Amino acid sequence: MPSSIVPQTNLPRALKPGDRIGIAAPASPFDGKSFEAGLGVLESMGFNPVVPEGLFEKNGFLAGTDRHRADQLTRLFTDPEIDGIICARGGYGSMRILPLLDADVLAKHPKVFVGFSDITALIGFLVQRCGMTVFHGPSVTTLGDGNLQTREHLMAALTRAEPLTLTAEAGRTIHSGRAQGPFLCGNLTLFCHLTGTPFQPDLKDRILLIEDRGEAPYRIDRMLTQMRMAGCFQGLAGLAVGAFTDCGSSRQINEIVADRLSGLDIPILAGFDAGHEGVNMTLPVGVPARLDTASKTLSFLNPAVR
Amino acid sequence: MPSSIVPQTNLPRALKPGDRIGIAAPASPFDGKSFEAGLGVLESMGFNPVVPEGLFEKNGFLAGTDRHRADQLTRLFTDPEIDGIICARGGYGSMRILPLLDADVLAKHPKVFVGFSDITALIGFLVQRCGMTVFHGPSVTTLGDGNLQTREHLMAALTRAEPLTLTAEAGRTIHSGRAQGPFLCGNLTLFCHLTGTPFQPDLKDRILLIEDRGEAPYRIDRMLTQMRMAGCFQGLAGLAVGAFTDCGSSRQINEIVADRLSGLDIPILAGFDAGHEGVNMTLPVGVPARLDTASKTLSFLNPAVR
């Protein structure tokens, strides 16, 4: 276990009622009805959602050209009238805009930023290249799905400067132990598709949480095999497993994780409420966390907002 | 265009009637009925298919443990009674056994080796690590599908020491030009899942042919994006596009290829008969080839067998 906690240099400010939350669409176009429902939820939380011009662009499976999506996202960070950012949807396309983002510019404007699934590419970029603390949590189009716990967790995470502790109530220990390190969280498929690129996630000393959706068990095996072969898991401090939705049984996923990460001797704990089904907890990425299979907890050691 | 042709050091011997073809199952278990049909086709060609003990092992989505599959494959190469090798099926699992194969041992036993899809991982290994010439072509379980051209091409490729020329009759030029280099061929998904690993294909100066099946257009885009970002296409001499089955329209695939490889200024020609539908030509991997969009041809410059 590393003795010192990596300092967080770039904490966003906590949101408060009336704050303006800019909506970003860095990946795929999205469904209007779910989007409206999600906006309604943000309003019911007391926020003021801001829909930028050009948000509804459509370019095949992308929400506009790469340049358009990169510029839109950059503008949300640099605009002083915008207090926080939430993504409309994942889908696909975030990784395409990474070469068009200027890490130095974004790093000067730390803001609450929320998304998941395809947005994993941006989460990794903002945390690793900009030293920012960001949030793995619901998108606008999933926020209206009626899950009240998801909403409550989002509200708490974005507004309270208090460290969070998650308990995997029905969690399954795949490898016992306790470890701590800066937290990273995202979609396995996306991490896998960044492997070998300049944007490959650096997992050394980190506590990693992975989730996925709609990938057959052999595909989960293939992704973990690639990442293991590529050395991605070297030095990883601990692994938390979130929801694997429509990926086969959780027993099978846990067996695959145990097999593909065998020999690493790090704590691995499955059963966290993060991902594409049920409760999608809002988790602070970049914040130091401790994973403990004895207490089945993932504890964040610092606040995620100031 | 490189002025010299990379020498082939490790040519297999051409097969002749009565030769013993060993069946390998380095990936997934397979369907008995298609397998029997394929064996019948090999027999009708005058070959003597050899089914090794343990071929029907099953370990979830794998045809036995990694050690079992690696040992079986190694034995087929080293056994002097076996004249050639054809894979029962792809599926998934070839990449898992790569670290268990001894390239020096295999390189001493060049033999006709045929497979495709998941077998791409082995094709890359045998060509790049062993300097062997191998064949991208049907597996036993696809050979019985009734496609007579696939069978005729397989027979010709394995038995005749004559260079082959392929014409993409209804081929579509994505970027015009002419180039030559050693030929590599395989499944895009597999190439993508080797990216960042020690088994990443070295595409420099090569003519590459890709095919795939059952991957949505945004996934094809994502794979090409990853490989481009990882630098895989740097120095690539030319690209041939085979069948993209159940991946959306060929027009859309061609557009994605054009977009993701834009700026490379290499010949790109789509419409070759290789992959998961229709005719699956048996193509010699490792042999120098010339891709010419004017004549819509992929011409092999040397024989693939001695």
From TrEMBL, chains A, B:
One protein family per Pfam: Peptidase_S66
Gene3D superfamilies for this protein: Class I glutamine amidotransferase-like, LD-carboxypeptidase A C-terminal domain-like
List of catalytic residues: S117 (nucleophile), E211 (charge relay system), H276 (charge relay system)
Domain LD-carboxypeptidase C-terminal: 180-291
Keywords: Carboxypeptidase, Hydrolase, Protease, Serine protease
Family classification: Belongs to the peptidase S66 family.
Protein name: Peptidase S66
Organism: Desulfosarcina widdelii
Higher taxonomy: Bacteria, Pseudomonadati, Thermodesulfobacteriota, Desulfobacteria, Desulfobacterales
